[in-house]
Write a structure and sequence with these properties.
Oligomer: single chain
Bound molecules: zinc ion
Structural class: alpha/beta
Helix content: 25-40%
Radius of gyration: 28 Å
Shape: elongated
Largest sheet: 7 strands, mixed
Low-confidence stretches: 534-540
Number of helices: 15
Distance between the termini: 82 Å
């Protein structure tokens, strides 16, 4: 595509030409072919590199109209490859202002150590570009999986094309650039490296960057680092949940005039629930990334959106409709949970699995049990047959650890416990003791903060409660019922979610414990590890 020659003063025409001459398609049938930008992508680059009319040679970020840019597009539109291409540009391409052309000047790759033959002749009055001397780039996202998506596109984009001459080696962890520059990937866990002397920071999925995920702080740290170096950031996301107060939301709602907001939206009058209108919405927000010009198959997007909409309509509308939509709210229809309640006694000696979510002073601590045939219950213990759920408020603010320990001991004595999954924060030493006492094949740590695993486990219970031929039943434990009703879905990357409480006082711990317990049951079944009940039969 010929770069759009715009009347505005921007490095865009040079930058787009440079990207198309240097970056290659990283994967698929056309891998290794020139990476040609869609018009919408080219226009975004053009806008991000627009200069102030007053820009003077020597200025860095201050030469540009925008201090940072927010790009809001639906899933699969191509934000990742565009970000990778922009990383190449900021790494070794003409990303900085180098004065105004009087006409006839040429950007010649040979002047910058690249033998690809690329030349670009400036028009009179056009902005000229030059590369950073020592660029430091941090590809930043909520999770390593997310930074990996961009980084995995970036490496072949360099390796399979002309950039390999300038950047002969792309490492698994980071990429060294000429003259001491480098490209890193970071998440919130890399606090010490965040924002150090950075010149360009692509921040991905900022709709998920919230206070609770510690990503708001990450963003602020990086902006400070960029300000010190004269660098700039690009933020990418799809539509977000406005109840999450994300970085995407605050950036979009900010009154600052030096932030570019490129947010493709369909008219609000179109309903995402209506199939015909949903198609029109997709047509608008996917724009020229759609076939035949682009790589997106509209029918494929429709199918994926319909599939996700069945489970989570709000998420589907954010992801594929690119809209700002409040969260779907409840994780599970409380009435559907209640419908699975049965009256049943589980005799001592029965084989069960256990789930344990331990807390200290605010959240509750719970143990749930499940039989091989999928009956889940809150066991009772002690002389008063108390349920194994502890509200610290009833114990002068602290969960009674000795009592919990006694309950665990009683359960292991009275039942044949095939497996126990325990969420470790706050209770590591107790869990280690139980593993030592009852066997480390039976007592296992199961960290609920792992998004991928927790999402899958949560989905497993949800499915087994709601599916047509569900065999899952439970004891109707009132506390668990309330906690199930309290549980909300908090979005995470790649269409996943984790359970969250709606407010600090509305607890969900017994629900999380039910998820853990059901996961243990499913895993024991999958591994064929349910011992014969007869062998463990309790002889009273
Ligand atoms: Zn070149």
């Amino acid at each position: 595509m010929a770069p759009p020659r715009l009347v505005r003063r921007s490095l865009g025409p040079l930058n787009v030409a440079w990207i198309e001459a240097h970056c290659v398609i990283p994967d698929g049938f056309d891998n290794g072919q020139p990476f040609l930008l869609y018009d919408e992508q080219a226009l975004f680059i053009d806008a991000h590199y627009e200069l102030k009319p007053t820009a003077t040679l020597g200025q860095l970020a201050t030469a540009f109209r925008y201090r940072r840019s927010l790009l809001v597009r639906p899933q699969k539109w191509g934000k990742g490859p565009l970000t990778a291409a922009q990383v190449c540009l900021e790494g070794v391409g003409p990303a900085l202002f180098a004065g105004w052309a009087s006409g006839g000047e040429v950007y010649d790759c040979r002047d910058h150590g690249c033998g690809c033959g690329f030349e670009y002749e400036y028009e009179p009055g056009e902005a000229m570009g030059r590369p950073w001397a020592t660029p430091l780039i941090q590809i930043t996202a909520f999770s390593e999986e997310q930074t990996g998506n961009i980084y995995d596109a970036l490496r072949p984009m360099i390796d399979k094309g002309p950039l390999t001459e300038l950047i002969p080696k792309t490492g698994e962890e980071f990429i060294r650039l000429p003259h001491g520059g480098r490209i890193d990937t970071v998440t919130s866990s890399a606090q010490s490296r965040l924002g150090q002397r950075v010149t360009f920071v692509p921040q991905d999925e900022v709709g998920l960057w919230t206070e609770t995920s510690r990503m708001t702080k990450v963003a602020d740290t990086q902006y400070r680092g960029l300000a010190g170096m004269g660098g700039r950031a690009v933020l990418t996301t799809n539509g977000w949940d406005p109840s999450e107060a994300s970085v995407a939301q605050s950036t979009y709602e900010s009154t600052a005039e030096d932030i570019l907001r490129d947010f493709k939206q369909a008219p609000a009058t179109l309903s995402y629930r209506n199939k015909v209108e949903r198609r029109r919405i997709h047509r608008i927000v996917y724009g020229d990334s759609l076939k035949p010009k682009g790589h997106i198959d509209l029918d494929g997007i429709e199918a994926e959106a319909a599939d996700l909409a069945e489970r989570d309509p709000a998420q589907a509308e954010r992801f594929f409709g690119n809209r700002i939509v409040y969260g779907a709210g409840a994780w599970l229809d409380g009435d559907k949970w209640d419908l699975r309640a049965r009256v049943r006694q589980v005799p001592y000696g029965s084989t069960i699995v256990l789930g344990f979510d331990g807390s200290d002073s605010d959240d509750w601590t719970a143990i749930r049990a499940e039989t091989q045939d999928g009956f889940q219950f809150t066991p009772r213990f002690g002389p008063d047959r108390q349920p194994t759920i502890w509200d610290p408020a009833k114990f002068s603010g602290q969960v009674p650890r000795l009592e919990v320990d006694a309950a665990v001991d009683e359960l292991f004595n009275r039942y044949a416990v095939a497996r126990m999954y325990c969420d470790p924060p706050d209770w590591k030493s107790e869990i280690d003791e139980w593993a030592a006492k009852y066997g480390d094949k039976r007592v296992l740590r199961w960290e609920t903060y792992r998004t991928v695993q927790m999402h899958a486990a949560t989905q497993r219970l949800h499915t087994d409660v709601t599916k047509q031929d569900a065999t899952f039943t439970h004891d109707g434990c009132p506390t668990t019922g309330i906690h199930v009703r309290n549980a909300r879905k908090s979005p995470r990357p790649n269409q996943r979610y984790v359970l969250a409480k709606p407010t600090q006082t509305q607890k969900i711990d017994a629900c999380v414990t039910s998820v853990l317990c059901h996961e243990a049951a499913g895993d024991v079944t999958a591994a064929n590890l349910w011992p014969s009940t007869v062998a463990y039969a309790y002889s009273a």
